[in-house]
Amino acid sequence: MKGLAVASLMTAILPFPSLAAETRIGFIDSAKIFREYKLAQEAQQQFDRQVQNWRNEAAEKEKVVTQLRTGGARSSADPFGAQASGEGGSPAEGHPGI
After folding, report:
1. Per the domain annotation, does 53 fall within a domain?
2. What is the count of structural domains for the chain?
Protein backbone atom coordinates (compact mmCIF):
# COMPACT_ATOMS: atom_id res chain seq x y z
CA MET A 1 0.00 0.00 0.00
CA LYS A 2 2.88 2.38 0.80
CA GLY A 3 4.45 1.58 -2.56
CA LEU A 4 1.25 2.49 -4.36
CA ALA A 5 1.01 5.79 -2.49
CA VAL A 6 4.63 6.68 -3.28
CA ALA A 7 4.19 5.69 -6.92
CA SER A 8 1.05 7.82 -7.17
CA LEU A 9 2.81 10.77 -5.60
CA MET A 10 5.80 10.43 -7.93
CA THR A 11 3.51 10.16 -10.95
CA ALA A 12 1.73 13.34 -9.90
CA ILE A 13 4.98 15.26 -9.27
CA LEU A 14 7.13 14.12 -12.21
CA PRO A 15 5.29 16.15 -14.88
CA PHE A 16 6.02 19.29 -12.84
CA PRO A 17 9.77 19.41 -12.11
CA SER A 18 9.48 22.75 -10.33
CA LEU A 19 7.06 21.20 -7.82
CA ALA A 20 9.29 18.16 -7.35
CA ALA A 21 12.19 20.37 -6.28
CA GLU A 22 10.06 22.15 -3.66
CA THR A 23 8.22 19.13 -2.31
CA ARG A 24 9.51 17.53 0.87
CA ILE A 25 8.31 14.23 2.18
CA GLY A 26 8.93 13.24 5.77
CA PHE A 27 7.64 11.01 8.49
CA ILE A 28 7.27 11.07 12.26
CA ASP A 29 8.72 8.18 14.23
CA SER A 30 6.07 8.03 16.94
CA ALA A 31 7.63 4.91 18.47
CA LYS A 32 10.85 6.87 19.03
CA ILE A 33 8.91 9.75 20.57
CA PHE A 34 7.18 7.45 23.07
CA ARG A 35 10.41 5.60 23.74
CA GLU A 36 12.68 8.61 24.33
CA TYR A 37 10.59 11.53 25.59
CA LYS A 38 9.37 11.55 29.17
CA LEU A 39 6.50 13.98 28.51
CA ALA A 40 5.11 11.66 25.84
CA GLN A 41 5.35 8.72 28.25
CA GLU A 42 3.59 10.68 30.99
CA ALA A 43 0.85 11.75 28.58
CA GLN A 44 0.35 8.13 27.51
CA GLN A 45 0.13 7.00 31.14
CA GLN A 46 -2.41 9.72 31.94
CA PHE A 47 -4.45 8.72 28.88
CA ASP A 48 -4.30 5.04 29.88
CA ARG A 49 -5.55 5.90 33.39
CA GLN A 50 -8.42 7.93 31.95
CA VAL A 51 -9.40 5.09 29.61
CA GLN A 52 -9.33 2.64 32.53
CA ASN A 53 -11.58 4.97 34.54
CA TRP A 54 -14.03 5.07 31.62
CA ARG A 55 -13.98 1.30 31.37
CA ASN A 56 -14.60 0.93 35.11
CA GLU A 57 -17.46 3.44 34.95
CA ALA A 58 -18.98 1.63 31.96
CA ALA A 59 -18.72 -1.72 33.76
CA GLU A 60 -20.48 -0.28 36.83
CA LYS A 61 -23.25 1.18 34.70
CA GLU A 62 -23.63 -2.07 32.81
CA LYS A 63 -23.91 -3.89 36.13
CA VAL A 64 -26.67 -1.53 37.31
CA VAL A 65 -28.54 -1.92 34.01
CA THR A 66 -28.29 -5.71 34.25
CA GLN A 67 -29.58 -5.62 37.82
CA LEU A 68 -32.48 -3.37 36.83
CA ARG A 69 -33.38 -5.63 33.90
CA THR A 70 -33.29 -8.82 35.93
CA GLY A 71 -34.83 -7.32 39.05
CA GLY A 72 -31.82 -8.46 41.05
CA ALA A 73 -30.40 -6.97 44.22
CA ARG A 74 -29.91 -3.25 44.12
CA SER A 75 -26.45 -1.82 44.59
CA SER A 76 -25.56 1.20 46.70
CA ALA A 77 -24.85 3.05 43.45
CA ASP A 78 -28.41 2.35 42.26
CA PRO A 79 -30.19 5.71 41.93
CA PHE A 80 -33.54 3.90 42.24
CA GLY A 81 -32.66 2.05 45.43
CA ALA A 82 -34.89 1.39 48.41
CA GLN A 83 -36.62 4.34 50.10
CA ALA A 84 -35.45 5.51 53.52
CA SER A 85 -38.57 3.88 54.97
CA GLY A 86 -37.30 0.54 53.69
CA GLU A 87 -39.76 0.33 50.79
CA GLY A 88 -38.49 -0.59 47.37
CA GLY A 89 -40.02 0.07 44.02
CA SER A 90 -40.02 2.65 41.32
CA PRO A 91 -38.49 6.10 41.79
CA ALA A 92 -42.00 7.65 41.69
CA GLU A 93 -43.29 5.65 44.66
CA GLY A 94 -43.55 7.74 47.78
CA HIS A 95 -43.21 10.96 45.79
CA PRO A 96 -46.49 12.86 45.51
CA GLY A 97 -47.22 14.44 42.17
CA ILE A 98 -45.02 12.08 40.14
Report:
1. yes
2. 1
**Mean pLDDT, residues 84-96 taken together:** 49
Closest CA to 64 of 53, 52, 78: 78
67 found inside a domain: yes
pLDDT the model gives residue 7: 59
Residues 6+ apart with CB under 8 A from 68: 78, 80
Q: Give the model confidence (pLDDT) of 24-36 as tens digits.
A: 899 999 999 989 9
In a domain, 42, yes or no: yes
Q: How much is the mean pLDDT over the chain? A: 76
Torsion, Cα 9 14 18 19, to 10 degrees, reads -10
